[in-house]
Amino acid sequence: MSDEQMSDEPATTKGPSRRAFLRNGALAGAGLVAGGTAARAATPDPLITEVQDWASAFGDPVDAAPYGTPIRFESHVVRRNVEWLTESPVSSINFTPIHALEGTITPQGCAFERHHSGAIELSKADYRLMINGLVDQPLVFTFEDLLRFPRATTTAFLECAANGGMEWGGAQLEGCQFTQGMIHNMEYIGVPLKVLLAEAGVKPEGKWIYAEGADASSNGRSIPMEKAMDDVMVAFFANGEALRKEHGYPVRLVVPGWEGNMWVKWLRRIGVYDAAVESREETSKYTDLMPDGRARKWTWVMDAKSVITTPSPQAPIRHGKGPLVISGLAWSGNGKVTKVDVSLDGGRNWQEARITGEARSKALTRFHLDIDWDGSELFLQSRATDETGYVQPTKNALRDIRGLNNVYHNNGIQTWWVKADGEVENVEIA
Amino acid sequence: MSKSRNLLIGSALALSTLAGPAMADKLGLGRPALPEEISAWDVAVLPDGTGLRPGSGNVETGEEVFAEKCAACHGEFAEGLDSWPVLAGGEGSLTDRRPVKTIGSYWPHLSTVYDYIHRSMPFGAAQTVSVDETYAIVAFLLYSNGLVEDDFTLSNKNFTEVVLPNADGFYPDDRPESEYPKFRAEACMTNCAEGAPKVTKRAVELNVTPTDPDGKPAGTLPDIVAAAAEASAEAAATETPAEATPQAEPEPAPEAAPADQAAAPAAGPHPELIAAGEKVFKKCAACHKVGEGAKNGTGPMLNNVVGHPAGKVEGFKYSKPLLAMAEEGLVWDEAALHHLLENPKAFIKGTKMSFAGLKKEEDRAAVIAYLSTFAQ
Fold it and tell me: Between A and B, how many residue pairs show a Cβ–Cβ distance under 8 A?
């Protein structure tokens, strides 16, 4: 390229040095695996001893990507769906690549999507929010109106009630992206819903709100007034930028700690009623069938849960024995995660992991455990405890209570079988 | 109890601090909602009948409307085609290993049926079912579930008299009583179970996980070391003439489109394009069927469409604007299909086709290629 031509270095030395580096680089890498911790370079690493292209010529100019996407080496870090799960991709779900992410904030671009009639394109100019029903004054807000209310911020996880649902009958999918990836965690900016409700004036008989979206499904959900007046937010920014289309641009509801289906996207109406609407999404779906044939309804809270994200089936151990970082996520819809334990032997013995960074209420919490792996097989498990004292149960403990026909709210302990070669499988154990 | 209460108070305080003192007063933002606007958007119907509009429909009409607007996915008898929802039957199955959750067996309220059909159905053409049609469909669904006779008429007057069989089948979340006490015990840290772990279930045995081309679970992190070795081998194989392969200069870059067209074999679309089209077509498949025995659904079946005159699929009720365009000689050649697929509503003003369109040219080309394989 023209950059190369501008380099002072004679072009002839470029090729050989590059080839040599690639060859030796591979050898050095192989040595690392064989030697474990005591890796020692047999020959000088040309990545260090030779001047590389990127250390000599120019990189991309500014504006090469006015809004950047991840570097091509990270192209595997994308949302993925499981096609056989649903009949149509416009009423479907995909999964966050949590096995490839660190920290707690989920980038919007790879945060899982769930649509009931596809992600719609709704502009700020065309946006309207109506509050009506049992209020003193039914109101219509434009997007501009919303921007003039005092703002608040909250960081919260959104977990689909069905996260892990496919695992209810037994280990089924290979990888935490698929088994626990119906989750994301973002920092939102918006207006507390109670501020908007106060603007309309809720009548004393108004006990429930019903939130619905502007898309064809409208996906409405009822929320009791106490929650609506507590920490629910009408959000328009996530992770510092406008909501992405697939996350409800320009406005979505944020319902911290409660199942993702209630976080209505493309929010268009808040109705105030004296009772729950009992919509399709809160009767025929998102209800929990119990062994006696009756069903729990209004199971809104997502209970404490955790999962080890690496190692995991999509993130096998490739460096051999020696220092190993075990990394994972924990969360609770009932408050803060106070403790995460990790077991290497399938729940026989546990050790407390380190909580890395801040543990926030109803937000994802990152934990790490650093071990010296001896290269033998492991049965990795993690177990979260939240500030209410709730300890994440085993899958069987949940099945003992809920039977086999439950689909939603599977917060059971996940087991990863780590083989001696570092490959990892999703298993259940006795 | 006291703990969670403190939590609530704590978070309320945090929010009010952030929002500042202005919160106490109304800001006078927004404007009053007009009755017409409320009527247009507040279509919710509650179990006690709140929100029902005046109207009625009988089983017989419902059967006709259902056949036209619903049966493509739900089946003529509401039995559900493929994996689309089953709406009838399933009584007594809720304790079975494979419960069948239908309106008759599971749904607690008839209002939910009305509300959902009226606001969200048919899939891909929401809010096109009139109030009377909705009453009729609901009446038909009651009939298909064996809950009313075939001469039944449902209206806003008798609506709340209908009680679904599973009305008492639900109770509010009891986890705080039935589960939390069990799971709040001190967690065991050592010697919590006997013996070594035994694997009882392996996900690999089911083999239902999407995979990468190498057979590993889709999205598996690349092996950095192996990737370097591979790159090395590739480099050794291909780089000998490296100095002789100059990077293309930007100026004389050939136009992409003609090159693509030249590359397309005259015999028909490329198999990869057809495969891509099959994927994209899933966006269409809720309304349009193709292949052997394809029937009309919300939209016409699409066998034998590419290159043929518009508006000719037997038994499909086209919109008037489309019929007018067909009259004027509209033929579904590639150009016309591109236009339609890019923005159906712009191409046929007043079309029943409630699809936002395929914005990417390659998606449209792929779907057209896929459709062209369904020719007789």
Answer: 364
